[in-house]
Amino acid sequence: MNDDTPLDFTIVNKRLWNAKVDHHVKSPMYDVPGFLEGADSLNSIELDLLGDIQGKRIIHLQCHFGLDTLSLARRGAQQVTGVDFSEKAIAKAEELAKKTNLTASTKFICCNIFDLPDPEELFDIVFASYGTICWLPDINHWARILSNHLKPGGFSLLVEFHPFLDIFDEAYTRIENSYFNHGPIVCDCQGTYADRNAPIRNKSMEWCHPVSSVIQALIQNGLKIEVFKEFDYSPYDALLNSVKIADKCYQIKGLQGKIPIIYAIKASKPIS
Ligand SMILES: C[S@@+](CC[C@H](N)C(=O)[O-])C[C@H]1O[C@@H](n2cnc3c(N)ncnc32)[C@H](O)[C@@H]1O
Question: Methyltransferase domain: from which residue to which, for each copy (predicted)?
């Protein structure tokens, strides 16, 4: 490839995510042994907004290696479909579904979410969380996928790192970047958030989607915003320069309580 060839985000990011999987599976952050013994990987932010999922049909976009997908099934969802384009992540998710006897209530699809076929049956809930939309160039297309997969009366739930974080340098010590989307941000990444010393180095392509773009895309695709919340902490110790302020509660040193770190949007599909 010469230097002028545009990068294909699917190829670049799939390579990146395939390289992360083994390190994430072994990491204390994902705690696979705990999960196999019955621990729930979901956090109170999404659990409160999901409400009672007994008997629901859920599609979980960008499910990584499936811990949250399987946790939704353990909580009584009738059928949970996890989608991810990383072959290694989906293979691990299928292996974990077998180990936890959840194959009857879960299904995994390995594909780019932009290539998902039209669903044969619509879903009650579309769910995505923590590090998903930054990998997608087209937020309007993403919102169309959500809307196309929902039953009338169903809802989507996105829980995401706040794009306000993107204005800072990696250590959150100074303002370096725009809050607005000026096209792909291409980086060479070493290690990974769940294991900073993992011996991996890959290019990544990300986009900063301001909260207004996400809300506007959901509205334009026929969804009604029901809940919009911002949180001043992350349940994961995934950011540099973090301080633990409580169990599953991390903020950034020097900025504690001052900036949004996570946001959540619940949007419903009207019945008519
Ligand atoms: C940070 S993880 C998702 C967070 C998840 N809650 C977890 O378990 O950590 C991001 C996932 O998005 C997937 N991904 C990125 N771009 C994608 C795309 N265009 N289509 C499908 N999956 C994608 C990656 O393979 C990765 O597994």
Answer: 60-154
